[in-house]
Backbone:
């Protein structure tokens, strides 16, 4: 089996990703429409034109339904990230090498953690929260993958 070539960022991806961040700034977390997995997949799709979340979309609306599809437990989101990144040839990198637009797994204070996307300053990872996008500092980033 050949290794996936990896994703290529589209022209003007920064402008489109910035628009997504702005539109999502005050949007409230919602299973199946604005959760961390779909936000991360949306961000990857905006940057590359390829939606790694296509097989997850419109399949769940509750935490229980999400866990039935994505898996349950503290490692479920990491395993989801590993599946997506392997399928699309996204290399795992050290968190200190993560840069704007990259995918990270973070400690967001929940038992399962969250998937997030690096902002344009490189200081924060962004993910959906109860009051809009949460900003999570680098010391809480646990794993990272290059988009």
Residues:
């Amino acid at each position: 089996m050949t290794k996936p070539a990896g994703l290529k960022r589209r022209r003007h991806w920064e402008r489109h990703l910035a628009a997504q961040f702005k539109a999502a700034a005050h949007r409230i977390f919602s299973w199946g429409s604005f959760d961390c997995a779909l936000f991360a997949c949306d961000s990857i799709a905006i940057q590359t034109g390829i939606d790694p979340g296509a097989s997850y979309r419109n399949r769940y609306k509750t935490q229980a339904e999400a866990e039935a599809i994505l898996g349950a437990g503290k490692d479920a989101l990491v395993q989801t990230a590993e599946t997506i990144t392997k399928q699309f040839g996204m290399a795992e990198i050290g968190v200190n090498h993560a840069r704007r637009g990259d995918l990270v797994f973070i400690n967001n204070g929940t038992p399962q953690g969250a998937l997030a996307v690096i902002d344009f300053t490189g200081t924060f990872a962004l993910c959906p929260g109860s009051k809009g996008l949460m900003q999570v500092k680098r010391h809480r980033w646990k794993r990272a993958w290059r988009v």
